[in-house]
Specification:
Layout: H1 3-12, H2 37-41, H3 43-67, H4 74-86, H5 90-110, H6 113-141
Length: 151
C-alpha cells in the first residue's frame, strides 16, 4: 500500500546481466561511437578517426562486392565491412540490428517442422525433375563430350 516501499522493492531488484559482456540481458547495446575516450576528447582526432573507419569499411565492402560474382565469401565480407562501420556510425548499427533480427527470424522459420518438410519435398521434386531431364537427354543424344578427342 505504501508507494515508497513498492518503489524501493522494484528499484532494489537489479536487472539480470550477461556475465560475458556485463550488459543487461536482452537489451541491445547502446548506439553510437565505440572509439576510445582519448579519441572522442578531441573533435579533430575523432573526425579523422571516423574518416579512417569509413575508408577501411568502404574498402572491405567494395572487396565483398567484387567477391559476389568471383570466388570468395562476398556476403560475409560485406557484412564484415558493415560491422567495421557499425563501430562508429549509428546507421550501420541499425542496419546490422535489422539484419540480425531478419536472419534470426529466418532461422526460426526454417526450424519449423512444416517448413522443413515442405523444403525437403520441394528439393526431392526438383531433383527428380532434373534426373528425368538428364535421362531424356542421355537417351536421345547419348553421352557425347563437347570436345573432339581422337585417339
Amino acid at each position: 500500500m505504501n508507494a515508497e516501499s513498492d518503489e524501493r522493492k522494484s528499484a532494489a531488484v537489479p536487472a539480470p546481466r550477461d556475465p560475458a559482456t556485463g550488459d543487461v540481458a536482452g537489451a541491445e547495446p547502446e548506439l553510437g561511437s565505440k572509439a576510445p575516450q582519448f579519441i572522442k576528447a578531441s573533435r579533430a582526432l575523432h573526425l579523422s578517426w571516423q574518416v579512417g573507419v569509413f575508408v577501411v569499411g568502404l574498402a572491405v565492402v567494395a572487396a565483398g562486392i567484387v567477391m559476389l560474382p568471383l570466388p570468395g565469401p562476398g556476403w560475409l565480407v560485406i557484412f564484415g565491412g558493415m560491422a567495421i562501420w557499425a563501430t562508429e556510425f549509428v546507421w550501420a548499427q541499425l542496419v546490422l540490428r535489422w539484419t540480425k533480427r531478419k536472419v534470426t527470424e529466418a532461422a526460426q522459420k526454417a526450424l519449423d517442422p512444416k517448413v522443413r518438410r515442405r523444403n525437403i519435398i520441394l528439393t526431392v521434386i526438383g531433383l527428380v525433375i532434373i534426373a528425368v531431364l538428364v535421362g531424356i537427354y542421355v537417351w536421345k543424344f547419348g553421352i557425347v563430350m563437347p570436345w573432339k578427342i581422337n585417339e
